[in-house]
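Limitations
The structure tokens in this dataset are predictions for the assembled complex, not deposited experimental models. Users should treat interface geometry with appropriate caution, especially where small molecules or nucleic acid strands are included. An illustrative entry is reproduced here so readers can see what is and is not provided.
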Amino acid sequence: MSTSAVAQLPGPVGDPDRLLTLARLLASVSADAGGTSLARTGSAVALPASWSGVAADAARAEAGALAAHIRRLADSLAPLARILLGYAGALTQARQSVALLRHEWDAADREHRERRNRAAAAASVDLAAGLSDAAAADRDWAHEQARLLARHTRVMSDLADAGRHAAAAIHVTTGSTFGDPGSARARLLATLPLTEDTAASAAATATVTRWLQGRPAPSWWTPADLAGLADLDLTDPHIAQALLSAIGPGGLRAVVGGLLDRTVGAARGRSAATDEDGDVRAADTALRALATAYSAALSCPGAPGSAVALRAATWRAAWSAGVAREGREPSGAPEVRPLRDVHAAAALLRIGHEMGLSAPADDALAALVPAIIHAEPLDQASVWREDPRTDAVAALLDLARDRPDTAATLLGTPLGTYAFLDYLVVTRPDAVTEGPSGSVAYVADVMAAILPCAPISVTSHLLDAIATRVGTAQAQVGPRLSLVDSLAPWRALVAQLMREHPDSTDAALFAPASARDLDSEGWSATGLPRIRLRDELSAARLWGLIGLPSDPDALTREVGTASGVEFDRAVQALCADDLAQALDTVTSDPQATQAALTRLGTLVGFTTAATADLLVHAATSQDAVNGTARKGVDAMLDSLKVPAGVKTGVPSALASLALVLVTQVAQSRMAQLAPTSAGAAAQASRDQARVELRSSSRALVWDLISQAGAWRPEDNPRDWIARHHAPDFLDANGHPRPWSALTRAQQDAYAAWSQTVPLYATLPSYLEQAIDEGRRRADDLIKT
Amino acid sequence: MFIHVAPEDLTGGADSLHSDGECLRAAAAVLRSAHGDAVHTGDCAALLDALSHALETTTIAALTLAEAAATLSAGLVSAASRYATADDALALALGGVR
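Predicted assembly:
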């Protein structure tokens, strides 16, 4: 083949053999992928049919999606091989065509040269003829060249078209399946949730491993190392988890401890030297970065029950287990000051809370509880005890304030036993007296904020714990003030709850079996969720707490203090239903009235006896000198004066009756504890008490009957007054005015008239008997 | 509480998945070498572009699918090793992270 032909008719670039080899490779890969177990059967992992549950469903779903993708991969490679084979054929054909054209070129070239030679020979004979032949040969050669070049162009164009068609076919074949190579992986992983999260986790681990390369152990990290945290996206849960996993609970504790040390001056408001300012700022930045990582790592990503959420939950469980394990081991880290894991966690939680970061999942928070209960009493001597940044109880309670579910989980920890709540309310006041959250008042304030949003069972358990605390305090021989101080912060909250949920006491006394399950739900007659009290003893202790003064020494200076008002309001609320029923039925159904008064009397007798008992206990728990104790009781009783805000009439009569009852029981108890005289004096005192009780209970019932106007027309009091020329004891409606508002003469007239109306004679005795019953039930509890 | 099968049944599934993952990894290696060969075919630019694109994509896809098979396989192994404990199911659902 001439160089001219090759130069004029270049062959197509490409190697059909390589293309054939490539096509065979792709066909082979297609066959291999299509031959996998998954591709052949769709779920060739042969998962046993008997396997059921969340994991089985997740595994089958993932295997099914994976099988579909593998089949699509195999299916897309097979046509790719066919397309390449087709192009290889076109290329071969083009190469052959070009070779043929080159042969034709060479043949035409030879013929042209031969014709020129013949023309030259002819020219020697006949110049004109020779020149004419040469010109014809040149013309024919030029024509042939043009024809061959055109054919060559057509062959090459056809080949280019075949290439473009093949390219388009390849795009169609693979494009619909996987699209852009950059996003192919992401698209596949998006439909493989188990793999996606694991892959992200692996990538994060690789990123963090690279970051850690060349850096010392966390406890030796320099400010530059800490500043380098900014290179990591710590808001990414995978990165955050990878970082925490890499440094471990001990490493985190060491780093956080060092940073807290460096910022302790700033935290306490001390002015640092200028050259230290930058260091403090850097430490503060690092703490915020770690708080971000802590929040992200322990967050709760993904939909509930999703693979992502489950994987995150397992990571959290593993981390919490690691924290618990490390917490049991002595720390070997070169820390400036010893710091526990719960302190480090508390610091990060509180910083995260200030930053507005999402709170860690409830399970991660709950996992801290056992360590807190274990460590807090031991930390009374720790240098950290007064640093609010490391206050773990405050950190958890802050997070629970506006998160009902978190509150229920934390306080119910572990597993609905409410051990943490019991710790906070019952045992902690004795074990922990130091630290920013060490006071009972702090815990009571937080609980008051939590309860309105939390499930009602939390309230029931809190009341149960408070009642237990009252019992614990009563059982201790100690300063009176410690009893008052450790209980008084709860008084307002308990009073409010007992006022808002009077049915709780009612149920504890009259339907104890239904009341004891503190976790059961239900609605009271008032439309509020039902609070449960564990038993009568619990109710007695809580009522005692309501009547307990906050500051017994100050009570002599002020009458009608908060405790008196709260106690009175709670009694009013407790008796409201029975009073209303008595009023409604006294004219129509005396038996119903009798039943209502019996219930009312029992409740009042029980609650006032319980209150008096705790008052006496508070007064006598410290002082062995009985005279002093008696003064204390008198001071406390002064606090229970009928509040000025209570109007006259039935409410006032009820308040007076309650006061009389509390006073009687308290004085009786004091007389038992410290008899001042024997025989006649004691008997006289008891007789006097009986008279007072009769008078008070009669006043209440009479006011109630009078308010209802429950007498026959022939017993009309106005007619009776007119007939007897007696002092007028009636109001504008013709009903007797409240007993306490009458003069002695009016009272005498009222009493005389009432003897003509049977109800006035019979009903008070029912109330009186019921009060005795209620007091007896309270006394029985005290004896046991 | 969810798993009612013998551990070896799950392990068998894991082996099968592992084998699939290896096969896909080998396929990805072949595709990668084929990509190198394709450069030397020297054919028309459009075809070369399309072929490169397709080979890159399918290589990544094969590797991703191999990775998915490995994850599932590890999950099954994890579940099988903790047969009859309460959180076996979770261990698998996590893709054998633990």
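Some entries come with short summary sentences. For this one: The radius of gyration of chain B is 19 Å.
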